Amino acid sequence: MTESVSVATKLTKREARLIERISKEYGFMNKSEAVRSAIRLYINLLSLPSRERLRVLQIINELIAPSRVISSELIEQTHAEDDAF
């Protein structure tokens, strides 16, 4: 059974442009579909072991915004997420 949940957020202009670009580039029907897919991806990534999750995040980062986040920041983020659980 599927449960519907509404989520509202504020985006920076850069984030909104990026979502718009990704939506068009990857053929999403609209921005909401792109965001839903991103949330599903994130939830699925949480089920991976840290090392595998880090590698997937690095690949995604290289595809989407190669110069924005460096690997060491991804490693720190992955460790912080592990500590939270």
For the structure shown, list the relevant keywords:
4 helices, 0% strand, single chain, 68% helix, 85 residues, mainly alpha
Described by the principal axes of the CA atoms, the overall outline is: globular
Instruction: Quote the beta fraction.
Output: under 5%
Q: What structural category arises from helix and sheet content?
A: mainly alpha
Helix content: 55-70%
Number of domains: 2
Largest pleated sheet: none
Number of strands: 0
* Beginning-to-end CA distance, first to last residue: 26 Å
Average pLDDT for all residues: 81
User: Quaternary state, please?
Assistant: single chain
Number of helix segments? 4
Unreliably modeled segments = none
- Secondary-structure element sequence? HHHH
* Global Rg: 14 Å
Describe the structure.
Helices cover 68% and strands 0% of the residues. It is mostly helical and 85 residues long. The chain has two domains: 11-47; 48-85. Helix 1 packs across helix 2 (31-46) and helix 3 (50-64) packs across helix 4. The longest helix has 16 residues, at 31-46. 1% of the residues are buried. The mean pLDDT is 81.
Draw up the topology in text.
Blueprint: H1 13-25, H2 31-46, H3 50-64, H4 71-84
Helix pairs in contact: 1-2, 3-4
TL;DR of this structure?
With 85 residues, this protein is mostly helical. It has 4 helices and no strands.
